Amino acid sequence: MTGESLHRPGPMTGPTRAPLSDQVRRILLDHLSRGRWLPGERIVERRVAMELGVSQTPVREALRDLQALQLVELSPNKGTWVRELTPQRLGQVYPVRGALERLAAELAHKQLADRVDVLEEHTARMHAAARAGDVDGQVRHGVAFHREIVEAAGNSVLLPNWESLTIELWTRLSLTRLRTELHDNASDHEPLVEAFRRQDPEAGRLLQLHILGYAHEPIGAS
Amino acid sequence: MTGESLHRPGPMTGPTRAPLSDQVRRILLDHLSRGRWLPGERIVERRVAMELGVSQTPVREALRDLQALQLVELSPNKGTWVRELTPQRLGQVYPVRGALERLAAELAHKQLADRVDVLEEHTARMHAAARAGDVDGQVRHGVAFHREIVEAAGNSVLLPNWESLTIELWTRLSLTRLRTELHDNASDHEPLVEAFRRQDPEAGRLLQLHILGYAHEPIGAS
DNA sequence: CGTTAACCGATGATCGATCATCGCTCAAGG
DNA sequence: CCTTGAGCGATGATCGATCATCGGTTAACG
User: Which of A173, B15, B85, B162 has the fewest C-beta atoms lying within 10 Å of its C-beta?
Assistant: First the structure.
C-alpha cells in the first residue's frame, strides 16, 4: 500500500495537472488520518521523499502546509513532529468553531432560509449513514452540513479561516485516537434547520450551543 | 535600500540564527506594506531571489507564507500576484475579527480583570502617539491592545487564527492605499477597559461592536 | 568515575541546474 | 482578414548535490 511512486512516465495521458507537492500533501494527510504516523513521532523529509519517489522539495512544501493546519510541528533545523491530539487541544477547537459558525449563521440568515433543502439533504444522508453503521459517511455529511452554513455567509475571510480548522480530519482523529463516540446524529440538526427556515434571530446562537455540545462528547476528556 | 545581499560571509559572528526564508518573508512583508509592489502586480520568484542574493527556494517558501496570510495569490504554474486591497475585502475582515475577539473576551473575562493595567498602558501609549502625530505608534499600540485580549484567552487555536488576520498590516495598507482615516483614538478603548475591570458579562459584545465600528471608517467604502 | 570538548552521522536548509507549462508570436492555410 | 497551431521565451516546479546545524558518541582529562 505504500511505496506508491509518483513518477510520471512518458507523456502522461490526460489532464495531468496537480503539482507534486499537492499530491504529497494529500498522501501525508491520508497517512496522518490513518495513524501511519503517531503523535510525537518524527517525520523525516528525505525518508518520505524516497518512499514516494520524489525529491525533498515537494515533501517539504507539503509539510509546511500541514504545519499551517496545526497537524505537525516544524522546528527550524530540527525537523517535523506529529502534534499530539490531546483532549485539551481538541477542546480548544470547539469554541473557535462555535464563534465562527455563529457569525456565519448570522451573516447568512437570509441565504440559509433559501437553502434549508440542502441542509435537509445532508441531514437525511447523515441519518441514513448512521443507520447503515457508516461512520465515515456520518462524519462527511455532518461536516458538509456545517460547511454549507459557512459558505452561505459568502465571506472570503471567514471561509478559509473555518477550513483551516480542518474539522473533518480532527473529527476522524478524535474518533480513532481518543475513541470518542459519535453522537452527532441527524436529529440534533433538525431544530437548527427549522430555526434557519424561519430566519430565527437566535439561530446563530443555537448553532453555537450545538457546536459547544460536541465538546462534551470525548470520552477521553477527564 | 534594495539589493541588500543576505549572504553570510565567513564564520558570521554572533548568534546567526533565522532561516533565510524567514528573513526573505520579513523583507517581502516590508516591501508589501510600503507599496514596493502594488496590487495586481506580479512577483517573480527568480527576480526577487537574485535581488536578495539568495536562491529561488527560500523566496518560494516565503511567498507560500504570504499566501497563507492572503496577501498574495499563487496560481500553480502561473505565478504570484499581489492581491487587491478592496474596501470589500477589508470589510470582510472586521466581522471575523469581531467574532474572534468577542470569544476571546468571553473566555478571558477573568484573566482580563487582572490585566486592565496592561490594557491601560497600551491605551495611554496610543493616546500619546496620537498627540505626537505618530500614526505608526497608534497602529502598533492599538493592535497590541487587542492582541493582549486574544492572548489572555489562552486558546492555542484562537490565537493563530487571529494572527492570521494580520490586523496590523491590513490597517497600515488601509491607511496608505485606501487613505482611510485613523479614528481609533484611545478614548474609544476606555469603556472597554472599564467593562473588563468589572468583568461585565457584556464586555465581549461591547468589544465586538467596537470592532465593527472600525468598518465604517474607510473613506473608500462607497 | 564524572566532566568536557572534539568528532561525526543524520537531516534540515539552501543552492544551481534542469524539466514542464503557460502565453505569446507569427506564419501557413483557408 | 481570421483561424490555427508550431515555435519560443519566461518562469514556476522539481531535482540532485552541497552546506550547516543538531544531538549523540567518544575519548582525553581530572
Answer: B15
